[in-house]
Design brief:
alpha/beta, Rossmann fold, 7-stranded parallel beta sheet, 9 helices, 7 strands
Length: 242
Amino acid sequence: MNAKDKLPKVADSWTTAPAASAREAWRMFGIMAEFVEATERLAQVRPAVSIFGSARVAPGSEYYDLTEKIARLLSDSGFSVISGGGPGIMEAANKGAFGGKGLSVGLNIQLPLEQKANPYQDISQTFHHFFARKYMFVRLASAYVVMPGGFGTLDELLEALTLIQTGKSPRIPIILVGSRFWGGMLAWFREQLVSQGMIHPQDVDLLQVIDEPDAVVGAIFRYYETRGFAQPAEEHELLLNL
């Protein structure tokens, strides 16, 4: 007997009860409903800037105050500001926008260790699934402002970069705030990813590093001064096929 014949077969131990299969099928309707509800409720949130950053930043700290100021400037300039709806940088972004002229939007997520929504939201939309939430961050954004953060922030940043690099979403400004915080990562991109041919040198140019709040807003307006904020039909179609 061949030695491989003695090994257990995956198919022998993998069974799906009809009831479990039916639950999985019905769950798809719940996912679809989450997309439909969010799309309809947030359809008029434009132009908007998505702000990412750590949930662990305390009120009154350097990054919290910086985020609040950037969000207020964006809001008073006519942008809706979108955050993850929780504490830390997310709260600072919503708080700054809430005090300004634009909408403050929180895309909250239900977590096993429940994330408490911050109180500075004109529109609060709660998601069960990370991928639906992340889709709305991308779908609505005219620019990304990325504050210092951890794994979640890096996940959102790298997903935005990947979508733009691969042509799955339009190129929009991605602004990293905090040259001291982000400098090492950018150096590693160039020294390792570019030098070994993992990415093209121009891929790094998708990122801007800016420290001053006024300069963040100015960079976004400069990008759109020739094309305007209205979304061309081809970009709309592109985002429908993310």
